[in-house]
Sequence to fold (459 residues):
Amino acid sequence: MRQRKRNTPFKLVTHSRSVRSLTAAFLLILVVSSSNISVDAFAARAGVKGATLVSTETREGRLAVFDDVWATINERYYDAKFHGLDWESQKVNFRGIAADAGSSRELYVVLRRMIASLGDSHTRIYPPEEKFDWWRPRFVTIGAAVKEVEGRAVIGQVQKGSAAARGGLRAGDLIESINGQSAIALVNSKLASLRSLGVKSTSETTTRFRAFASLLDGRAGTSVELRWLSKNGKERTAHFRRDWQQRELELRIRRESDYAVIEIDAFTKPIAAAFARTLKEKVTGARGVVLDLRNNGGGDTEAMTDIASAVVGAGSSLGQFTERSRFSFTIFTRSKSALSPERIAATSLPMVVLTSERTASAAEIFVAALKASRRASVIGSETCGCVLAIRTRHALPDGGLLDVSELDYRTAAGTRLEGHGVRPDEFVQIQRSDLYSGRDRALELALRRLTNPLTLRHQ
Fold:
């Protein structure tokens, strides 16, 4: 499709589960650019300046917020057909409920129900007190994350020093009930609710992942009662308080014998610079590299492109973005960084990439590019399937924020990742015993493949 010049900055947002979960694939922007599209700095916290905010304590204020949300999505949403959803009917169905909401919190519950009908994890809304900073993500959590293991709700991670850790929860523990309700019954209820939306923009794998991951969600300052089975089968019960937690985005590197293992939390400009330094200073002498993207929720396209360029080489297409009007543009790897005056130092070391359901957005674009170029083998589980984009955050009349998906994405081969994700070359299933022992089967397999390069698989 013929490109036309435009000076609009593009940002990609992804969000593979609730922002209240500890290890969520946190909300980040991906600033997308091409040779004829400028990239502007993005204000992580939008706001209404020089204007009087409406009060959602009044019916008029609630209607003002509702109408603004509905109209903004109606105008900006990347799919003019809304996946077959009758968006006009959604206004009729929810407007009166929003007007009668008893509080601001209830209003935003109604708004989120309406938005959920899109089946789009990227289009999100935040009340004024929950504004989300993409570059400094924070979550409401008890300090533990739940995941599906062997078909059951299992504690997948516990943060040191958290309420969960102090209360005796351990990774691998089996959750029996939450606030007196069966954990599996709650999961089935969530799945039924998600499936009832009738929208196919989310894969079954991601839908199940979200259902399990959101089991402990709740407002800051509230508590949740858990009943669980420990490693020895002993039943325990305790109450845990939900609190805000800040997460810092980092790059970590360590050696496993002759191989470098690099964990990348997100694609940011500081992390891209750190990756360049790592290749020059800390990978010397390594026989291969494992890139761990299992907790990478996305990031800045320039940063992702720099890192991809160091791995794939210059001149490779990283895919195409298309807006509602069908205008599109393509991003490419390059030989010179857009973030610094230096040329990008490339590596030809054998490589394996680790993925999970939390691998999302820019990370999925990155993995798809490496897989397509046969540059790396992919091990783990299917990625989120969360690759849509926005231009700017929209400030609401009451000071809340709205993110709207405005751009779709396809790989260089024309494959749409939204709702599908990237399948690994080799799947690895986690077992409860692995969580108790700290065993990492995916990493073990990656190191075996690097030890014998002839066994590296690319599908």
Observations:
- DSSP finds eleven helices and 22 strands in the chain.
